[in-house]
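Researcher: Quick sanity check before group meeting.
Model: Go ahead. Protein one:
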Amino acid sequence: MMWRMGPIMVFFGGTLIISVIKIGMLDVLPLLVDPQTSWFKVHIVWAIFLSTNVIYNYALGVLSDPGSHKGSAYKKICKMASDKFGKDFLKDLTARTSAGPYEWTRCRKSGMPKPPRAHFDSVTKRLVIQMDHYCPWLFNTVGWGNFRYYLMFQYHLVFSTVYITIMTYRPFCTVMNQKAYTGPHQNHEANAGGLQALFTECCWQLENGTVINRSQKTMIVYLFMISLAVVMFLGAFVLWNTHLLVTAQTSIEVQINQKNESKAKAQGLVYRNPYDQGWWANWKQLMGPYPILSHLVPYWPGPLWPPYPTMKMHSTYPNSKSNGEVSLQVQTAKHGVSDDQKIKRIPCRRGSVSSSSPTPYAGWVVEMVQRQKQAIE
């Protein structure tokens, strides 16, 4: 059902964006700012800049491959894994219900090699690298390949709607609080004689002295209400997605990390997200190694290559050349609050096992927590 609704929601969302741009720039802005002034040109340039970024990022969010097993990025990563870990690495992978943070497995639903942080999207029936969620407004999965466009679309949409809300706030209050009066209003369609006819209709006068009719009032109310709703709803959503980005989490991994934190806390330990490299390094993983101001303009380059941590393999595979340590902050729970003397960072490793052996990472947090706690005590 959600898949079938996708094209309808993309059409509706695109139509809504275009209507706001058209009404705002061509119909309402000339009523608020004198077209003969230089300020009008400044507003037009700013509106074009915001509109271009919104449309550009929305289009790429819809059209870009999120990192699915059908895309070129996934195939390239699989080839890199075979070259690094051995030619039989992908063939020997098995499906597991639980895996370590850096471990490759086999997807039970698609049967494809499953890189770390990849998940199967049940809506699009694709295995997606660093999958976050399926977005019906994009008619696409949000993942490693298009998260940047998804987030930048939200940023620029919020900037645009904040701008529109500010511009239309006072005119909106004026037309809503002011009683309409009957007066002349020019009809902009020329009559047969080439003259503009004057009609008597309900009018409102804005603070700048501009007289508007009922349809123009409707446009102002429409822009203000739509923009305010987007700012209130999408603003909180943007803050949440930014939090996920700088903490190296996806919407799926938030739930996983919460469970691991609870397990660690029950043992008197502090769980640390194994993918967290610091907010700036986390930002660059998906947004690219570019200055923050460069994201203000449309451009094509995407996230860092390869997707982290697809090439950071644990020693669970015989041919793996790396340990892939997981850092846990371990503390005793005797005094409740930890201090520098009671907290240690312990690298946790598992021994080399065959890929056909039982799940080596089942309950990996609890098992390591128990062993490390015993070692401290």
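Researcher: Fine. The other one?
Model: Protein two, sequence then structure:
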Amino acid sequence: MFMSNNACLVPSSFWLTGIPGLQSLHIWLSIPFSSMYLMAIVGNVTILAVIKVERSLHQPMYFFLCMLAVIDLVLSTSTMPKLLAIFWFGAHNIDLDACLAQMFFIHCFATVESGIFLAMAFDRYVAICDPLRHTLVLTHAAVGRLGLAALFRGVLYIGPLPLMIRLRLPHYQTQIIAHSYCEHMAIVTLACGDTTVNNLYGMGIGFLVLILDSLAITASYVMIFRAVMGLATPEARLKTLGTCSSHICAILVFYIPIAVSSLTHRFGHHVPPHIHILLANFYLLIPPILNPVVYAVRTKQIRERLLYILKAGSQPK
């Protein structure tokens, strides 16, 4: 770490506080956080394994679900090991490059996840509104291209963030980040100098991803509901809507925690700092935990395969 002429720091590393104001409870907080991380890993690996071995699940919706599982594993693993290291070993220090890499993975794969939800909405739209062409439109190759497009968009949108920090913001007021992980705005607010470009770019990406994606998903479901309401019987309507229920639940699980965390961060000026940080961690942990549960409960094939595996494992050899 060096001192610049204007007394701002030029840090080679940062210091993550963990959960500000709750440092004395870190060892106790590690219990629920480690449990949730373990649940996320087990749940998503189980989903990947079940879809791999169950050939009846080799369909577009479940391929997208596999992508979600991988993304959730990346998101949770980008933050939880470091947070648990802080809780257990007091490993607060993080190298500057490692901090920027963590920031990139968090924001990039959150963007990719939003893109996958948008692709899943398109899949449900075609399946319900144009069922005869569903297998022609959503081929395995098309699903792969949609997944790659979501990944490319995430890299394209988020790639400039660490570069802009590296190139435009070398000086900082302090090396202490009052957060449990390297979040973009948590770093930018510490910088000396003009951060207007960084702030505007961050807000622009947030608008493009959260607002436009959610509007596009909403539009697809408006058309889906119009098509469903045109079905002849209530039973047919419920059955058709049932094919969308898992996707709708997963969307709510993803967007609601982000919206609550963002609104609390921007407008909850009287909310204690540890509440902000806990919410920021929960929005990265809740989807990886609940997505496997939602799909296991709502999807008959996954549920039956899991029950078969559990029964086979409990039988005496």
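Researcher: One line on it for the slide.
Model: The longest helix spans residues 96-129.
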